[in-house]
Backbone:
């Protein structure tokens, strides 16, 4: 039998194929109010995943997407993990957006993760720790088991925000079916 083929798994083939598309910084150059988000992607054994790709999509600071936004705002990025599974990117904190039910969603960042052993991407969200009231009212976050909500909230870490993604095992990150 030969090795895995791209039709059998999404990684490690994505890492080198996406390197030229990597965008570490979503915030426009010179932005003073950007926030740095960093963390690791861990497999079920707690080992960093060296060939993962994170796709980031978010609203701007006013809660707008796409053509509604400032021309300098992209709202999309693609970040590759290091050999230890670490990642880092800078962005602007998103504003609140209207949810499908008409309510206001808490500020959040949508993350898609591609990695070895996954047949399809997994989707999660990153919420901000300083928005406790908005987080409690968020339709999506309030629908998650209270014991697991913490896997979706970044935590302060030396002037940055830390958000680790665990694919399996203890403290597995909540993933959504979309």
Residues:
């Amino acid at each position: 039998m030969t090795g895995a083929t791209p039709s059998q798994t999404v990684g490690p083939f994505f890492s080198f194929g996406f390197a030229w598309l990597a965008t570490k910084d979503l915030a426009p150059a010179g932005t003073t109010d950007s926030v740095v988000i960093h963390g690791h992607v861990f497999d079920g054994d707690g080992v960093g995943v060296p060939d993962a790709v994170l796709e980031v999509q978010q609203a701007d600071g006013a809660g707008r997407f796409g053509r509604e936004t400032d021309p300098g705002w992209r709202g999309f990025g693609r970040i590759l993990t290091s050999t230890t599974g670490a990642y880092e990117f800078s962005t602007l904190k998103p504003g609140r957006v209207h949810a499908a039910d008409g309510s206001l969603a808490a500020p959040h960042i949508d993350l898609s993760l591609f990695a070895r052993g996954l047949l399809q991407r997994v989707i999660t969200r990153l919420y901000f720790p300083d928005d406790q009231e908005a987080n409690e009212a968020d339709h999506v976050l309030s629908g998650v088991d209270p014991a697991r909500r913490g896997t979706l909230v970044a935590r302060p870490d030396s002037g940055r925000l830390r958000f680790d993604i665990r694919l399996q095992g203890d403290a597995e990150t909540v993933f959504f079916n979309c």
